[in-house]
Amino acid sequence: MIAMIGAAIAPGIAIMSYFYLRDSLEPEPISMVIRSFIFGMLLVIPIMVLQYIMQTEWNWRSGVVAEIIQSAVVEEFFKWMVIFFTAYKHVEFDEPYDGIVYAVAVSLGFATLENLFYLIINGLNIAFWRALLPVSSHALFAVWMGYYLGRAKFSQKKEQEKLFLWLSISLPIGLHALYNAIFLSIQNWLVVIVPFMLVLWWQGLKKVQRAHDYGSKNLSSRPQ
Fold first, then answer.
1. For the chain, what is the radius of gyration of the CA atoms?
2. What EC numbers are recorded for this enzyme (predicted)?
3. Of 3, 1, 7, nearest to 132 (Cα)?
4. Euclidean distance between CA atoms 37 and 35, whole angstroms
């Protein structure tokens, strides 16, 4: 059981550490990051209950559209809500890259507990693939979410803030939906998912650099 718990939490902790240590401007309080991670974990049960209701009470049991709504829309929406109400309005959210840190923390908290449940049900033999695909994909969707939350937070105009807030929720849902659609509709999904994940990492790291660039500009414009 200890080995299973370790295999479940190690990928999330490793990826979280990477994105946290990339914050070279004004690193976030570790207590805030841990709190966001825990909030993400707490989302798992209510989301699973809602998904169960959608499958049993609403008869959304099969089909690509039903699967995408239950997974991509529900999961990304609730993660976005937690980040918006617990981190976005917090005083510690004081540079654009912070959006990525908090979004990744919430998403990896969710992915870590979800991963533990999957390993308990299916065994350690799937731990490697879970780390490479579902856990890391949750983090990468969060990079897009956090990047645009950071842009929204430090927008000069209300119209810009609204646009970036919309992008911060719609793009992760779209990426998550595409990720799910690959598994659900393509028989030889491995041929497609590998380049898809590589592109996600490439674009995610570009978002990290851009967030740092905006953060540097923001710090240099502050009154001394």
1. 17
2. 3.4.-.-
3. 7
4. 5
How far, in Å, are 71, 78, 80, 112, 137 from residue 12 at the CA level? 19, 19, 18, 6, 11
Report the chain (224 residues): mean pLDDT per 10 consecutive residues: 82 93 83 95 94 79 76 94 94 91 97 90 81 91 97 93 97 95 89 95 95 72 48
pTM for the whole thing? 0.92
Cα 146 to Cα 7, 193, 222, distances in angstroms: 26, 23, 22
- Residue keyed to tokens 């939490």: 9
Read off the tokens for 16.
């979280």
Residue type at position 158: K
